[in-house]
């Protein structure tokens, strides 16, 4: 790539670009091992206004050649690169590479208007020669003359004109002074025009059928053209008689004569029609295991029926026979377009290509191509065509041509393992179900070879088997599809499997999510003055220091100032209120909002009454989502880091260092405000050294400076909040829209599930209904009483139940006396209570969130207790 870019820059083919466009650029390998650059201009071509400059009509092209007897054919070298892109339009050809962004200064293959523009160029250069002794079709130039003397002068004049205009030809592809020449699918000789034998060679060289199946292919091909052949039924009688399975297949002289007659009729008028560029072309292609076939057709103006213009078939090489079915079908399209390029490239109307491979209809929209397809894509970009799908049963004409080289002999399969190595076979009931269902819905025959078609009625059972079997154990989407594709297929496999796995409750309950967390960042409102909005939290687990083990952290969300208060233990709600009065309110006044986590001090009635009397709003973070109170959490981390730095050698002295930690934090410049907390909250920065600067001259000046500081701080906080939101949202995804009553799963990450090993406990609980949507990222759930957690959660801990509402838990059993009873599914644990025992049980039809301790008298099935005690005994003996 580096060499290509450097050479193209030096030669003036490309230049650096600042275009807003950028087509994909890549290299593909040629057959000789060299690389060819490819650029995907599909998007540009779709919005380009088509150039209607006409290509020459074949009827007018050959009219001046009637009296010619000697010909020369020239082929242009790097033809399209000889045309400059119009100045100001170069940016449209921009392409992106790892080495930079570039744009072309010259025309190149792949641009939709390139053929018309180049035809216009050559016509302008050779205009006074055309129809006198020159005819031109794109980059093919034909020079014709009546005698050798004139011809030499004509050739010299054309070459001189090309040289004057800096147009060059490929010597190795030119043919000089010939009495006969092939041009545009015809043969010119002695002033006469005749059909190129290659057009009908695919039919005339059809081998004599040796089996009934080969004969059926030939007659199936002929049925499409029988209406153009007089007495077709009479001619074909000896052949159709041989297709009967009631008589021996014996090829007679009469059958051979009729076979040759039909081939001759197929290859001549009134079946064949001369191609007319003003009429849309239809190209039918097919590929078999051994060959490819194609038919080029147009609607005839005489009878408005589709007549063939030419036939094509060829045998695949051993390497090509190893292509997968998609690449073989694509190869058939490529070979057909190459064969009839002189008619199809630059065609006035889009070419309709019919294949029996449905995936080819999405060729132009493919996001990823294999190396072989990438190599061909540049060639395809020269043609204006649309791919259309036709079932194989209706694609008979090219199918018959492609199977000329197929053998009907059965290939004996080679032995991979001798019978002595096989000790048993494995059979699955699902296979029998699929085969039985095929009797009502047979295989359409459009799928990949050696795969079993799955009818609609058994697809759900098959997906369930592949996803839940013991050898499978609930794999993801890719692995489930891979497992099914080993044997089975049906058209909507990907969609059906995806819907099933999305609705699988076992996978939803027990598998962790690998996706980005849900819920975009919702920054808290920016305060407008210091200490109006505060945040609280406790740091616990500190070593004993003069009787203190806990630190209270108070943070001003506006100035980022903090107060750190050492405590002997976690305080109660009343003690916390007194601490705020002593260390905060007397210094900074009453706040408007107090933000905290859901600790017991902050969810009590005492705390809410205290805040109400102050006129302050109590804000609590959602369950198991400390990021809501992120500022105080960050302050706690900074506190611990500073204490580690100064107390690592004497951990018991941390309480004495706490004032210095507070001073250090408040004097440092905050990244959010670009000022220190002292400057924002007090209006000045306490000096570390004696200062000679004069103090403020007046109180009004100090107040103006303080207000200006607050305005700047508010703007800085808003910018910081927006920046943090953008950064955080790169690693998050929007949450789905939840509605009241919707069933959702709740993450069990921070919830202890009783009686379960943490490693094997479900990753999600539920499903639970939504009680209320509190905001863009907060939801209140209806939880069972056994889950003693606050019911408000951040959306990152939730995921929706994809399927329709799942089946409700089974209703309780109604006993003979009319009372209600629930069935115990299994016993998980036991404990002593009073004079009896209680068992932790799972109920039949209910999830782990409904586990419950019940007395032993409630368990009517004594075998459950016996099994539980036996398992406990075996565990004790093993340990």
Automatic annotation (TrEMBL):
GO terms for biological process: DNA integration; DNA recombination; proteolysis. Keywords: Aspartyl protease, DNA integration, DNA recombination, DNA-binding, DNA-directed DNA polymerase, Endonuclease, Hydrolase, Magnesium, Metal-binding, Nuclease, Nucleotidyltransferase, Protease, RNA-directed DNA polymerase, Transferase. One of its GO terms (cellular component) is nucleus. Gene3D superfamilies: 1.10.340.70, 2.40.50.40, 3.30.70.270, HIV Type 1 Reverse Transcriptase, subunit A, domain 1 (3.10.10.10), Ribonuclease H-like superfamily/Ribonuclease H (3.30.420.10). Residues 9-188 form the Reverse transcriptase domain. Residues 822-879 form the Chromo domain. It is found in: Nucleus. CDD domains: RNase_HI_RT_Ty3, RT_LTR. Residues 526-685 form the Integrase catalytic domain. Its EC number is 3.1.26.4. GO terms for molecular function: aspartic-type endopeptidase activity; DNA binding; DNA-directed DNA polymerase activity; metal ion binding; RNA-directed DNA polymerase activity; RNA-DNA hybrid ribonuclease activity. Belongs to the beta type-B retroviral polymerase family. HERV class-II K(HML-2) pol subfamily. This is Gypsy retrotransposon integrase-like protein 1.
């Amino acid at each position: 790539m580096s060499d290509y870019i450097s050479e193209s820059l030096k030669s003036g083919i490309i230049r650096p670009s600042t275009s807003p466009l950028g087509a994909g650029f890549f290299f593909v390998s040629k057959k000789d091992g060299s690389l060819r650059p490819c650029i995907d201009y599909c998007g540009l071509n779709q919005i380009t206004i088509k150039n209607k400059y006409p290509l020459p009509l074949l009827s007018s092209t050959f009219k001046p050649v009637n009296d010619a007897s000697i010909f020369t054919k020239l082929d242009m070298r790097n033809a399209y690169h000889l045309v400059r892109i119009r100045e100001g339009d170069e940016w449209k050809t921009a392409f992106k590479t790892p080495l930079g962004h570039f744009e072309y200064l010259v025309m190149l293959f792949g641009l939709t208007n390139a053929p018309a523009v180049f035809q216009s160029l050559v016509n302008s250069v050779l205009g006074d020669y055309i129809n006198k002794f020159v005819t031109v079709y794109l980059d093919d130039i034909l020079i014709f003359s009546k005698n050798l003397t004139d011809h030499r002068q004509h050739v010299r004049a054309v070459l001189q004109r090309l040289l004057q205009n800096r147009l060059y030809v490929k010597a190795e592809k030119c043919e000089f002074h010939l009495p006969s020449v092939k041009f545009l699918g015809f043969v010119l000789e002695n002033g006469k025009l005749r059909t190129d034998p290659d057009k009908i060679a695919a039919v005339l060289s059809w081998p004599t059928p040796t089996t009934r199946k080969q004969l059926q292919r030939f007659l199936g091909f002929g049925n499409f053209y029988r209406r153009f052949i007089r007495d077709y039924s009479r001619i074909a009688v000896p052949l159709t008689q041989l297709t009967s399975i009631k008589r021996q297949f014996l090829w007679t002289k009469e059958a051979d004569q009729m076979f040759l007659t039909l081939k001759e009729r197929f290859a001549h008028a009134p079946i064949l029609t001369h191609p007319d560029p003003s009429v849309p072309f239809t190209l039918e292609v097919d590929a078999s295991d051994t060959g490819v076939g194609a038919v080029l057709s147009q609607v005839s103006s005489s009878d408005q029926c589709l007549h063939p213009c030419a036939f094509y078939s060829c045998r695949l090489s051993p390497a090509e026979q190893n292509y997968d079915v998609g690449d073989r079908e694509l190869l058939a399209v490529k070979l057909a377009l190459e064969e009839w390029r002189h008619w199809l490239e630059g065609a006035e109307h889009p070419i309709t290509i019919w294949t029996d491979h449905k995936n080819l209809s999405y060729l132009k929209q493919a996001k990823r191509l294999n190396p072989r397809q990438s190599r061909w894509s540049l060639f395809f970009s020269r043609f204006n065509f649309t791919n259309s799908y036709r079932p194989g049963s209706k694609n008979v004409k090219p199918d018959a041509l492609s199977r000329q080289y197929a053998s009907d002999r059965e290939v004996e399969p080679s032995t991979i393992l001798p019978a002595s190595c096989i000790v048993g076979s494995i059979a699955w009931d699902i296979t029998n179900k699929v085969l039985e269902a095929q009797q009502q819905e047979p295989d359409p025959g459009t799928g990949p070879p050696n795969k079993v078609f799955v009818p609609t009625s058994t697809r759900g059972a098959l997906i369930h088997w592949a996803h839940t079997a013991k050898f499978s154990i609930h794999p993801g989407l890719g692995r489930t599809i891979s497992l099914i594709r080993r044997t089975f297929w049906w058209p909507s496999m990907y969609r059906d499997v995806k819907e099933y796995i999305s609705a699988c409750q076992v996978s939803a309950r027990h598998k962790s999510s690998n996706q980005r967390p849900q819920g975009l960042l919702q920054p808290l409102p920016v305060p407008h003055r210091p200490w109006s909005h505060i945040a609280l939290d406790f740091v616990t687990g500190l070593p004993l220091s003069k009787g203190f083990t806990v630190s209270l952290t108070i943070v001003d969300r506006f100035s980022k100032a903090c107060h750190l208060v050492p405590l002997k233990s976690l305080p109660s709600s009343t003690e916390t209120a007194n601490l705020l009065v002593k260390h905060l309110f007397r210094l900074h006044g009453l706040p408007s909002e107090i933000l905290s986590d859901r600790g017991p001090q902050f969810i009590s009635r005492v705390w809410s009454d205290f805040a109400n009397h102050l006129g302050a709003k109590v804000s609590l973070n959602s369950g198991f989502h400390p990021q809501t109170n992120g500022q105080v959490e960050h302050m706690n981390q900074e506190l611990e880091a500073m204490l580690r730095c100064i107390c690592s050698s004497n951990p018991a002295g941390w309480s004495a260092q706490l004032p210095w930690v507070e001073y250090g934090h408040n004097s440092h410049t905050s990244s959010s405000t670009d000022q220190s907390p002292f400057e924002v909250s007090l209006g000045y920065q306490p000096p570390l050294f004696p200062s000679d600067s004069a103090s403020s001259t007046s109180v009004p000046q100090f107040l103006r400076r303080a207000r200006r500081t607050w305005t700047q701080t508010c703007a800085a906080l808003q910018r910081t909040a927006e920046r943090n939101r953008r950064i955080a949202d790169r690693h998050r995804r929007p949450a789905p829209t939840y509605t009241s009553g919707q069933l959702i799963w709740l993450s069990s990450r921070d919830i202890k599930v009783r009686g379960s090993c943490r490693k094997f406990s479900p990753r999600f609980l539920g499903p639970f209904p939504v009680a209320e949507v509190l905001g863009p990222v907060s939801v209140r759930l209806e939880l069972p009483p056994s889950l003693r957690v606050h019911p408000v959660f951040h959306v990152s801990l939730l995921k929706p139940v994809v399927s329709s509402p799942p089946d409700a838990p089974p209703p309780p059993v109604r006993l003979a006396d009319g009372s209600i009873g629930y069935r115990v599914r299994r016993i998980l644990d036991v404990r002593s209570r009073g004079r009896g025992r209680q068992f932790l049980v799972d109920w039949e039809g209910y999830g782990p969130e409904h586990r419950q301790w019940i007395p032993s008298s409630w368990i009517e099935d004594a075998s459950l207790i016996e099994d539980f005690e036996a398992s406990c005994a075996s565990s004790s003996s093993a340990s």
